[in-house]
């Protein structure tokens, strides 16, 4: 099963006693089709994580609405899996035990679940590592195990918050293709937040660009490379054109920031 995501006029304001309220996101409208893959980029602190947490039911909206399928999101849901920058594997459990953990928590560990995790570990190149402990695996392998744990839950929606930020460049590129392949096979609706513009373009069917805080969606770019992608995509002139287009949104922000630093007039 896979579901579409619909975000309508979403706003999140953080209030704290004695401090000014912080509007993290404002007026966010976003639709992601069932089984789609959408990348989200935006300056640091613009509300990307807040938006993702709201979609995952971990953060209440101040106004607006979010639906996954025809269900309004009002709290955490089992059909939504998260993955964060650090692989949050428990060090005292083996890789397989870690991947089975969500099912144990929800009292739904059965033979079918074990088989699915076994097949996913196999597919992720971790077939012989199920009995190893996280510290015995490289960073990239640990992240792959985290993806297996997330997909093992057979989620309708997969939410990824800068999952590869801590990896070296080569491992990261490999992980990009691994993730893309797992997504294409699982057909799960996926949202990926990333700092890397090439990663966003390489993986997304669309790239969403957010403004600085309060985060709004300022661009929504179709990426026309189809579902089957290889490293060749990066040699396509269209790839350079698309990354340059996404980057152009941030060049302006950087300039404003530099001018601010020098204490000069900030242009509008
Ligand atoms: N729980 C919170 N309480 C108060 N402010 C928060 C909280 N979470 C995030 N913020 C603020 O909201 C803004 C957006 O944060 P975040 O969504 O983490 O941005 P991003 O992921 O794009 O870097 C930031 O200014 C951050 O300080
Ligand atoms: Mg963040």
Summarize this, please?
This protein is of the alpha/beta class and 268 residues long.
Molecular structure report:
The chain has helices at 48-55, 95-105, 111-123, 139-152, 169-186, 197-203, 237-261, and strands spanning 5-16, 19-32, 37-41, 63-68, 71-72, 80-83, 157-161, 189-193, 206-210, 217-222. A hairpin with a 6-residue loop joins strand 9 and strand 10 (217-222). The chain is built from 7 helices and 10 strands. The longest helix has 25 residues, at 237-261. Mean pLDDT is 89; it is low at 261-268. It has 2 domains: 1-79 and 157-249, Rossmann fold (3-Layer(aba) Sandwich); 85-154, no CATH class. Helix 2 runs parallel beside helix 4 and helix 4 (139-152) runs parallel beside helix 5. With 268 residues, it is of the alpha/beta class. The strands form 2 sheets. A 6-stranded mixed sheet has the order 6-7-8-3-9-10, with helices on both faces. Strands 2-1-4-5 form a 4-stranded antiparallel sheet, covered by helices on one side. The radius of gyration is 19 Å and the shape is globular. It binds adenosine-5'-diphosphate (ADP) and magnesium ion. Residues 48-49, 161 line the site of magnesium ion.
Largest sheet: 6 strands, mixed
Distance between the termini: 46 Å
CATH class term of the largest domain: Alpha Beta
Strand order of the largest sheet: 6-7-8-3-9-10
Distinct helical segment count: 7
Proportion of residues in helical segments: 25-40%
Mean pLDDT across the residues is 89
Stretches where pLDDT falls below 50 for ≥5 residues?
261-268
CATH superfamily membership of the largest domain: P-loop containing nucleotide triphosphate hydrolases
The ligands found in this model are: adenosine-5'-diphosphate, magnesium ion
Strand-pairing-aware structural class: alpha/beta
Total domains, how many? 2
The CATH architecture of the largest domain can be given as 3-Layer(aba) Sandwich
């Amino acid at each position: 099963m896979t579901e579409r995501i619909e975000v309508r006029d979403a706003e999140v304001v953080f209030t704290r006693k004695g401090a000014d309220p912080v509007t993290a996101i404002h007026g966010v409208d976003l639709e992601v089709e069932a089984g789609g893959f959408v990348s989200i980029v935006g300056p640091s602190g613009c509300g990307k994580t807040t938006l993702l947490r709201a979609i995952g039911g971990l953060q209440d909206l101040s106004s607006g609405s979010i639906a996954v399928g025809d269900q309004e999101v009002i709290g955490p849901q089992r059909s939504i899996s998260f993955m964060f920058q650090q692989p949050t594997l428990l060090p005292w459990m083996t890789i397989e035990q870690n991947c089975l953990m969500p099912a144990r928590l929800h009292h739904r560990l059965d033979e079918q679940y074990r088989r699915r995790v076994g097949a996913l570990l196999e597919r992720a190149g971790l077939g012989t590592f199920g009995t190893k402990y996280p510290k015995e695996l490289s960073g990239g392998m640990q992240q792959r195990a985290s993806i297996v744990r997330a997909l093992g839950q057979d989620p309708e929606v997969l939410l990824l918050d800068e999952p590869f930020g801590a990896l070296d460049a080569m491992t990261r590129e490999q992980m990009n293709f691994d993730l893309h392949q797992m997504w294409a096979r699982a057909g799960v609706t996926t949202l990926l937040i990333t700092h890397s513009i090439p990663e966003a373009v390489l993986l997304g069917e669309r790239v969403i660009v957010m403004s600085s805080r309060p985060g709004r969606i300022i661009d929504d770019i179709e990426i026309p490379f189809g579902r089957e992608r290889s490293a060749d995509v990066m040699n396509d002139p269209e790839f350079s054109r698309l990354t340059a287009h996404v980057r152009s949104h941030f060049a302006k922000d950087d300039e404003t920031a530099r001018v601010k630093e020098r204490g000069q007039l900030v242009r509008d």
